[in-house]
Write a structure and sequence with these properties.
Length: about 260
């Protein structure tokens, strides 16, 4: 049964996604107004299809830079199912087969971390997107984890927070994600690698194993917003990291 379930879900995902890719592409090509909300609708469907049940804690800030812990490819579905948004990602993601196309269609901002000369251009693009009312998600850990903890936030990756709007730095909102249950039962730490994609795991085999594993419960907590108006970048990274770690610990312990 797990194999049959995974096969049906994967087939449905591929068929629906391939049918909808031209819709978003046309919207982007002709500047149609639905391009911001369409990925949100699509990922709400994907979350339903995959059996991802999302519990939202707190109030998300629109037009903000969200900084969150990163557990793997499922985070893209989870965040985008919660609200209309786009992501800030390393440039390599744009070259991935199929998934790179999906990232571009969601208007991802790609950052070349090895080239300092391109940091300013990325910051300007982020500023313009936030000015236009977009919400962007950044993963300051710089990589994904096993879902049982939060890795240190890299302050260099928070350079986007230096962008200014009307003389003030952009709003930065820390967000915690925690994979809390499977089949409606609290999930132990040994089961999180079934859904957490990290290290040298291959993406497609991991997708298959995740679909075989069954429905997933996730907690997403939006914390109080921060800004570089009140602290420097390193303090912002430490504060956001502590808030995100505390939120994840509460969720994994079943406190929130």
């Amino acid at each position: 049964m797990p194999r049959m379930r995974a096969a049906v879900l994967l087939a449905a995902f591929l068929v629906i996604t391939c049918l909808l890719i031209p819709v978003q592409w046309l919207g982007l090509t002709f500047g149609l107004p639905y391009v911001r909300s369409f990925p949100h609708t699509y990922h709400r469907f994907v979350a339903w299809l995959f059996g991802i049940r999302i519990r939202v804690i707190g109030v998300p800030a629109s037009g903000a830079l969200l900084v969150a812990n990163h557990t793997g490819w499922l985070d893209i579905v989870i965040f985008s199912a919660v609200m209309p948004l786009s992501f800030v990602a390393k440039s390599e993601v744009g070259s991935w087969p199929f998934f790179g196309t999906l990232a571009r269609l969601q208007r991802t901002v790609f950052v070349t971390r090895a080239r300092r000369s391109e940091t300013g251009a990325a910051r300007d693009e982020i500023r313009e997107r936030l000015l236009a009312g977009d919400t962007l998600v950044l993963f300051p850990e710089g990589t994904s984890s096993d879902g049982n903890g939060v890795l240190p936030f890299k302050s260099a990756l928070l350079g986007a927070a230096e962008a200014e709007i009307d003389g003030r730095h952009v709003t930065v909102q820390p967000v915690s994600t925690a994979y809390t249950g499977i089949h409606g039962i609290p999930m132990g730490r040994e089961n999180r690698p079934l859904f957490a994609w990290y290290g040298d795991m291959e993406l497609v085999p991991h997708l298959w194993e995740s679909l075989k594993a069954g429905p997933l419960d996730v907690a997403v907590e939006f914390h109080s917003p921060l800004s570089l108006d009140a602290m420097d970048r390193k303090e912002l990274a430490r504060t956001a990291e502590n808030m995100v770690r505390a939120g994840q610990m509460r969720a994994l312990a079943g406190i929130t």
